[in-house]
Fold these 3 entries.
Entry 1:
Amino acid sequence: MYRIDRFNELAKIVAEKRPVNAPMEPRRMTADEKDALLAQFHPDYKQGEFSELKVGPNKGGKVPTQLAELLQAHSRISADSVDLSAPDYDTDVLIIGGGGAGASAAIEADDAGVRSMIVTKLRIGDANTMMAEGGIQAADKPNDSPAIHYVDAFGGGHFAAKPELVAKLVTKAPECILWLNKLGVEFDKEPDGTMVTTHGGGTSRKRMHAAKDYSGAEIMRTLRDEVINRGIPVIDFTAAIEIILDKTGKAAGAVLMNMETKELLVARAKTVIIATGGAGRLHYQGFPTSNHYGATADGLILGYRAGAKLLYADTLQYHPTGTAYPEQIFGALVTEKVRSLGAKLVNIDGEVFMHPLETRDVTAASIIRECTERGKGIKTDQGVGVWLDTPMIEYKNGEGTIEKRIPAMLRMFGKYGIDIRKEPILVYPTLHYQNGGLDIDTYGVTGVENLYAAGEVAGGIHGRNRLMGNSLLDVIVFGRNAGIYAAAKAKETAVPEGLTLEHIAAFDNELDAAGITTDIVSPKLLPDYARRDK
Ligand code: MEZ
């Protein structure tokens, strides 16, 4: 059993100041203060961590260096190494990825009466959807509206999102909650059946719907059951490693690789949806991550090599409150709901140094400033952190609140002898989300015809910063959306002919012409945690 004893003396300062800190309403930062803070302390602004792309649809644009290396790498196969003439699978809609967006797309395609199939390199549900904790936004209360939700989301994303995508996100939100509720998601409800809603960072109304603090797991459980109960084929432990095009350049399937045997398989499809999720396991700038094991940016690589453009791939979300201690759960998500319920961020001197519900980029940058420039962080063996004063929740809302509203947090820290009802916890930003991704239109189509993208792999919905709870919403809204439109397109599309992987050779030629020599192959598929120090 590990205990927080070594921090006891410091935690006492937090406890002493709690009666003063708990009722305090820290002021929000002005727009100018936020801009200055972000420019100096947010990791997105560290120029040395980004590289310019020399090839592909985003030539001249900047992305994190690790991503650039994967985007400008070689395929795992060569253009002529796979026999495309006798596909192993034939379907209407091929869905790559078994998370919330992929599952939602499959359900809609099934409703539309077309054949669909999910391929996933791990198992259905091994996805960031499963890891989401705090909730899903929807403006469905009398004091709220999609228009207000729009203003919050668009402003929180620094007015950079594609307006038509934000509009779709917020207007479809209430309907998505009803859809999930009907499928069986156990949302938190009042005794009269009204949904319980709370605030998140940057929300001007309480519109976060949750299933305690395992909202994503509850949503994914429900979607997975639905996919399986409908008999939609799921090919697990099978990664897509290249998009197949037809003779006219439209998406027409994918080359698959069995993760265990490395056998290559061919799936032919009339339309393809990439729903592969995020990139946390690339550990940009050395950050730990809250993401699941398979979050290695695969969909960005698949789409890019096939000719699809990226949007805002240079902007990442560092969730302000990753676990800074204990080591065993370093980087694990401490849900924003902890702050929604009243816990404040406190420095080594017991001072509340900011409003706890600023938007995520601002909160993360503020914590980084506290720990660096101001030197007011608490040192740990892994680095540094600030206090998140969890006992404040019960101090303000009464005993039992933590067990009732955030039981997963109680359990996660309890395993290491830390009772979050009695002791504050140490937190520091963790790599959580890729704000950008494949550029899509309102039908979910990328720049390549018949190639769709949904969920975290898609860009443009959140601009340069996403608000809490808009990701679970995005996977449902745009997962369903892609399923609907990819199914409709499949209905009017003939079985593709002239399947080709010539774009691999063309991309290799571009690499040569740009003078890029690399032995990296992509997509990466799994993180590389092998120790090489012995
Ligand atoms: O939207 C998210 O990223 C989310 C709900 C995370 C959280 O803090 O719980």
Entry 2:
Amino acid sequence: MLNPKISKLLNDQINKEFYSSYLYLDMSNYYYDNNLKGFGNWFAIQTQEEYAHAMLFLKYMQNNGEKITLNAIAAPGLKYANLKAPLEEALKHEYFITASINDIYAAAYEVKDFRTMQFLDWFVKEQGEEEQNTDDLCKRFDLFGSDPKSLYLLDNELSTRVFNPPSLVI
Ligand code: OFO
């Protein structure tokens, strides 16, 4: 059994990860609609990663005998003003998720829940990578996004991204 506060935070995180998956699917659709299939693919892979993250939190709770409550997933509902906007929104969202993971970590530290801290270590590192990748994409868009030929090449490159399941085993 986990501390009830930790259990609630972990349960909430399942929803946040599913929401992340849904949000990135919306961004993927946006790029497909705008004929940037590589960007669409990049976000479709993000969608898969976030779904996998949700399932890791779910499995961790199950392994600890915790009851899971699946709550409604909010509609992304974002309107994108231009082709860069989803990238900026994605980066903002990653900062939000990082803060959320850090909050769970701090709460686990407070109640000496070392098992949950160890579980979260992987996510702390993962968030660092996610922020870096998304920030990198924003910067590359700044460099190449206004030139059609360069944008075409960047889009082609992003179309080669494939899904690698998380290395964390629960
Ligand atoms: Fe779930 O990794 Fe980013 O948000």
Entry 3:
Amino acid sequence: MHNDTGQQAFDAIIEADEKVEPRDWMPDGYRSTLIRQIAQHAHSEVIGMQPEANWITRAPTLLRKSILTAKVQDEAGHGLYLYSAAETLGISRDELQELLHSGRQKYSSIFNYPTLSWADMGAIGWLVDGAAIMNQIMLQRTSYGPYARAMVKICKEESFHARQGYSIMMTLAQGTEEQKALAQDALDRWWWPSLMMFGPHDAESPHTEQSMAWKIKRVTNDELRQMYIDQTVPQAHYLGLTIPDDDLVFDEETGHWNIGPIDWDEFWATVKGNGRVSRERIAHKVKAWDEGAWVREAATAYAAKQRSRSESEKEAS
Ligand code: 3HC
């Protein structure tokens, strides 16, 4: 299809709010933006298993251990779903791993913070998965078909993730003074990094305008962040916890919670690989990739053997 007719067909799909599918003509920039964003999303799911896996062996009860294990397993599945969506754009999983390991692709800033107490499992489920849900519900309406469809299943599981996190926070907040202090400490450490998950302010975002025009994004960074803040502040108050922001104030006129300034120096330092545990996260990921090479080789060899066996059976019949 020539570029002109391809562009016209693409524009008509976007205009009609329909889905762009892998075999449709698409602008190179649309394809590269989706590869970048879906890969980063997938990398985030996989790297995001590390902070929580750190507490599976130290969960306070067998029930909490099984819930957390199920959640971490879900994240692995979300990563696989998203790598599959990225592959439909013409890039291989191995290339994506190489780009992540070499620092040429990123994962969400939020996973570069250490998990210091069991209460962090509650704060991550409640705040981090809560922020992810806010973003992913919007992405169910993204213009690229495979990405939008991947979001439907992921969002269903994310709501379990957020609820189990809030359940941990509620147990602690309604427990002993020490337990409530643990919950408050976790909120203090995870509140601002969770707000950074939504990306820079719209005015500083190099991608938002074009991504909105292509309907990759349906809501801007700041709009999503505000929706998240308005939803989460009352939840913290219900727990009897304090949001760590002296400038937080409810604006009766707009009906929104207004926050103080976000530390964008911390955000960009983290994004550029200088987060609290950035190096540990990537080192762990590369080690797991290298140690798992034999599994990939065995699975590939087995699949090849199965294929040749079925081909020879076809010839024989
Ligand atoms: N962490 C790391 N990098 C970030 C970031 C973050 N939180 N927010 C923005 N950035 C980067 C962008 O990648 C971009 O970098 P680049 O130009 O070098 O590629 C730059 O900062 C400018 O930001 P923009 O807002 O212009 O970039 P985007 O248009 O890509 O918007 C986004 C950023 C809103 C995060 C968007 O990429 C997005 O919606 N991604 C999909 C959702 C996602 O990745 N969520 C991550 C968490 S997944 C998760 O939490 C799993 C859950 O189960 C726990």
